[in-house]
């Protein structure tokens, strides 16, 4: 298969079947849950990850992939006949994954050209950037063209979420200005945003329903949208948010995905987020 191939990391929370259907290779970050190492956690589905987390008070830990894991993915694309690779990674301000991907690209520079994009976002915000790259590659764009389309999508992508707990974010050290939430009343439902590549405090809402309504208004006010995804960490009430955003985006085109181990490690069980790409204006 010729053309440009797309590689990403598991922080994108892309459904594995969806990714495979588009020929996207996913490089896994390492996730450890207590004594359970990455060789085991890598085999878990997001549903299984959350079931295991519910059994322990230990918080998971994550670490970036080795550069060799990216190099292997890039080389595999080359063996399959790809003319080049665009690799989209989680924000470099949240993980060392971008640096690992850059090192992996340098290692295979003589075998296949690779351009690595720092998405400056995470979860399905990153996933939407990947899908924008896939669409450009499918149209036959060259390496620079696919990279440019992905970069454009990244600049128009927004991620906001409401959390049930701040424990994971605080202990994981990825809290940014969301530090302001700590010490607040336990009754608040904080809303955070990935802004400028880091997690920032966005709003305090009094109830879960209010937080959903707030997220839906953000979607409404941002329109028109190119794409929209709802990502959740085993949240049984995610349907309520889908109902709220459906008037602003075709329901059957809303991508609904699980927040997996990488992002879930830092956001915690019950997190629900909106990830959307605003339409390109002339």
So how many helices?
11
Q: What's the average pLDDT?
A: 91
CATH T-level topology of the largest domain: Hypothetical Protein Tm841, Chain: A,domain 3
Low-confidence stretches: none
What strand line-up does the widest sheet have?
9-8-7-12-10-11
The CATH class of the largest domain is identified as: Alpha Beta
- Give me the strand/helix succession: EHEEHHEHEHEHHEHEEHEHEHE
**Fraction in beta strands:** 15-25%
Number of strands: 12
What is the alpha-carbon Rg in Å? 18 Å
Inertia-based shape: globular
Question: Topology of this structure?
Answer:
Blueprint: E1 4-9, H1 16-21, E2 25-27, E3 30-32, H2 38-41, H3 46-53, E4 61-63, H4 67-79, E5 84-89, H5 97-107, E6 114-118, H6 123-138, H7 143-155, E7 157-162, H8 167-172, E8 189-195, E9 198-205, H9 208-222, E10 225-232, H10 238-245, E11 255-258, H11 261-267, E12 272-278
Parallel strand pairs: 1-2, 1-5, 5-6, 10-11
Antiparallel strand pairs: 3-4, 7-8, 7-12, 8-9, 10-12
Structure report:
This protein has 282 residues and is α/β, with parallel strands linked by helices. The protein folds into two domains: 4-29 and 64-155, Dihydroxyacetone kinase, domain 1 (Rossmann fold), CATH 3.40.50.10440; 157-278, Hypothetical Protein Tm841, Chain: A,domain 3 (2-Layer Sandwich). The chain contains eleven helices and twelve strands. The protein has helices at residues 16-21, 38-41, 46-53, 67-79, 97-107, 123-138, 143-155, 167-172, 208-222, 238-245, 261-267, and strands at residues 4-9, 25-27, 30-32, 61-63, 84-89, 114-118, 157-162, 189-195, 198-205, 225-232, 255-258, 272-278. It has a six-stranded mixed beta sheet with strand order 9-8-7-12-10-11, with helices on both faces. A four-stranded parallel beta sheet has the order 2-1-5-6, with helices on both faces. It has a two-stranded antiparallel ribbon with strand order 3-4. A hairpin with a 2-residue loop joins strand 8 (189-195) and strand 9 (198-205). Helix 4 (67-79) crosses helix 5 and helix 9 (208-222) packs parallel to helix 10. The longest helix is centred in the middle third of the chain and has 16 residues, at 123-138. The chain is globular and about 55 Å long. The two termini are 34 Å apart. The mean pLDDT is 91.
């Amino acid at each position: 298969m010729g053309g440009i191939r797309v590689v990403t990391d598991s922080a994108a929370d892309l459904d594995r079947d969806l990714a495979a259907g588009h020929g996207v290779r996913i490089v896994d970050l390492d996730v450890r849950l207590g004594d359970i190492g990455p060789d085991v956690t890598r085999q878990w589905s997001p549903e299984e990850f959350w079931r295991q987390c519910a059994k322990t008070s230990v918080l998971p830990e994550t670490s970036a992939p080795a550069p060799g894991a990216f190099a292997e993915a890039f080389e595999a694309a080359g063996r399959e006949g790809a003319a080049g690779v665009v690799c989209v990674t989680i924000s470099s301000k949240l993980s060392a994954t971008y640096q690992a991907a850059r090192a992996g690209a340098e290692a295979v520079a003589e075998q296949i050209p690779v351009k690595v994009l720092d998405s400056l976002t995470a979860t399905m915000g990153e996933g939407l950037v990947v899908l924008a790259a896939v669409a450009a590659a499918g149209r036959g764009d060259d390496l620079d063209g696919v990279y440019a389309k992905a970069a454009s999508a990244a600049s128009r992508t927004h991620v906001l979420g409401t959390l049930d707990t701040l424990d994971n974010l605080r202990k994981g050290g990825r809290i940014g200005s969301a530090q302001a939430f700590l010490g607040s009343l336990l009754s608040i439902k904080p809303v955070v945003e990935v802004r400028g590549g880091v997690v920032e405090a966005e709003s305090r809402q009094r109830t879960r329903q209010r937080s959903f309504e707030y997220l839906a208004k953000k979607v409404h006010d941002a329109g028109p949208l190119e794409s929209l995804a709802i990502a959740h960490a085993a949240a049984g009430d995610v349907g309520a948010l889908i109902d709220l955003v459906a008037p602003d985006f075709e329901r059957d085109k809303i991508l609904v995905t699980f927040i997996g181990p990488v992002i879930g490690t830092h956001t915690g069980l019950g997190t629900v987020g909106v990830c959307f790409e605003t339409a390109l204006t002339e």
